[in-house]
Amino acid sequence: MNKEQQEKHLEHIFSKMREIMLKKGNDYATQDRLSNFKLAGNICGISPEIQCLSLIATKVARLSVLLHNQNKPNYESISDSIIDLINYSALLDMLLFDKEEKKTKTSLKEIVQNKTIEYWTKTQTT
After folding, report:
1. Are 2 and 12 in contact (CB under 8 A)?
2. pLDDT for position 72
3. Residue pLDDT, tens place only, 50-93
4. d(CA 113, CA 44)
5. Largest CA-CA distance found in the chain, in angstroms, rounded
6. What is the distance, to the nearest Å, from the Cα of residue 26 to the centroid of all Cα atoms in its chain?
């Protein structure tokens, strides 16, 4: 495969990833495409990130079996599993970003609350 073919293949993968991510997101989730991981993690008593990571591990294990087996897969192709793995990785990144963003919002909210209390306390003592 030459450079041009690689780039074309990469574009094909990106297109397929996006299509699958959006279709499955509509089937599995609410407005928050991460809600299914949050709910499943809560049911299992683990974080959404670990829930997603367990699905990544399952895909890696499946790929290992398929790549070591000489038989053709019955249902999902190796390529499909690889795209799912890439999408789960992207979803994990989204979960981590979401978690960090919430942390930042909470920190800002606490700062505003503390400053408000500090201001209120100062105005009450003068």
Report:
1. no
2. 82
3. 999 999 999 999 999 989 987 788 888 899 999 999 999 999 99
4. 34
5. 82
6. 15
Residue 56, domain extent: 3-99
Q: Is residue 122 part of a domain?
A: no
What contacts 17, CB < 8 A, 6 or more positions away? 83, 86, 87, 90
Reduce the secondary structure of 26-68 to three states and give it as a string: HHHCCCCCCHHHHHHHHHHCCCHHHHHHHHHHHHHHHHHHHHH
Under 8 Å between Cβ of 95 and 52: yes
Count of structural domains, the chain: 1
Q: Count CB neighbours of 51 within 10 A.
A: 20
Tokens found for residue 44: 């299992």
Residue 25, pLDDT score: 83
- 37: in domain: yes
Residue 50 C-beta-side C-alpha neighbours within 13 Å: 7
